[in-house]
Every structure is written in C-alpha cells, then in structure tokens.
UniProtKB/TrEMBL annotation:
Designated name of the protein: Metal-sulfur cluster assembly factor
InterPro entries: Fe-S_Maturation_MIP18, FSCA_dom_sf, MIP18-like
Domain called MIP18 family-like: residue spans: 13-81
Pfam families per UniProt: FeS_assembly_P (PF01883)
Length: 110
C-alpha cells in the first residue's frame, strides 16, 4: 500500500497540512503527516476544519494527547477556527504509509 495521498482543495487546506507537520508522534518522534496518518483535510468557508486520520494502532495510548496537539496546531492557521477529527480505521495504517523521510528517520530500510 502506498502512502495515502491527502487531497486538498484550497490554500487554507494546504496550510493546515503544513501546520500538521509540526505535530510529532511522541512515541516515534516523526510528524503525523510523514507517518501517513492524515487521510484528508477539509476546511469550510467559515473556518471549520475536519481532519480524517488514523492512528498507528487501534489501542494507541496517546490518542487523546495527539488530538489535543492536532487541534492546537490546526487552529494556528489564521483562517481556521475549529478542528474536528474523524478517526478512521480503514484503510488500516501500516509502514508503507510512511514517507521516505519517515522511513529514513526511523531507520527502516526498504
């Protein structure tokens, strides 16, 4: 499975995705975008953002901590006022979702 392609429609959604690169998974030490956890970004004209994402495992113990960090980062984008997280388990995350950068950072060799 290739890394998910996050489809964005606007410069604001691109800014949200860029801002999400500042959110580091505390267990892995790599940002959630390069880990391939973000499946979609949708920002309405009135500044409500919905992220579709997954976690590395269903029982991920840092889910709530990560959600707080995500909301804080996303609402730093000037045009975004709220951030809802749509947590999904399909498609399931696996190592192939990660970018080359993440694989190199975690010393995973293909």
């Amino acid at each position: 499975m290739a890394q998910p392609v996050v489809k964005t429609k606007s410069p604001v959604e691109e800014a949200v995705l860029k801002q999400l690169e500042t959110v580091i998974d505390p267990e892995l030490g790599v940002d959630i975008v390069n880990l391939g956890l973000i499946y979609g970004v949708d920002v309405t004209d009135d500044g409500n953002c919905t992220l579709t994402m997954t976690l590395t495992t269903m029982g991920c113990p840092i889910g709530n901590l990560l959600a707080d960090s995500i909301r804080q980062a996303v609402t730093q984008v000037p045009a975004v006022h709220t951030c809802a997280i749509n947590l999904v388990w399909e498609p399931a995350w696996d190592l192939s979702n990660m970018s080359r950068y993440a694989k190199v950072a975690l010393e995973l060799h293909e």
